[in-house]
Amino acid sequence: MKMDNMYHQQISLLNSLIEICHDRYEGFKNASNKIDDNYLKRYFTKCSRKSLRFIVQLSSIIKTMGGQINKSNLLVKAYRVWVGLHYGLLHSDLQSILRMCEIAEKKTLALYEDFLQNEDIKMLNTNCLKILENQKSTISKTYLEIQELLNSIQPLVLNS
């Protein structure tokens, strides 16, 4: 019974990560559509594609475990860290868009860190844990890159 409970918890948590990655995908896709700068358009498109890759990886883990992908996970609705980005992009300047991406990516990174500390997740096999760690590392790198982009445009904004 305890193993069965752990299994269901693992599947639920992995489904939550899928939904978070889907929100991340949508957020970066929307940012790419709102930006005129070709470099940033390509950068955000690359980030959204990485999120799709994360979804495929997480889906594969769930299927390998014999679980089902939950398309309507209500629990994760509270974790919609990218939703604010969707609304904030309506009439935003470059700095605001980058700031919203930075905030959302920071929250996404914190969620991954929390998930990886969960006792049920720690019981996944080594390959699954490695995939989750690699995803977290990519998110961390993206977060730092967005911070660098923000820092590079702030002097331009101050001088205008």
TrEMBL record:
Residue ranges of domain DUF2383 in the record: 11-117
Pfam families in alphabetical order: DUF2383
Record-linked NCBIfam families: PA2169 family four-helix-bundle protein
Native source species: Solitalea agri
Protein name: PA2169 family four-helix-bundle protein
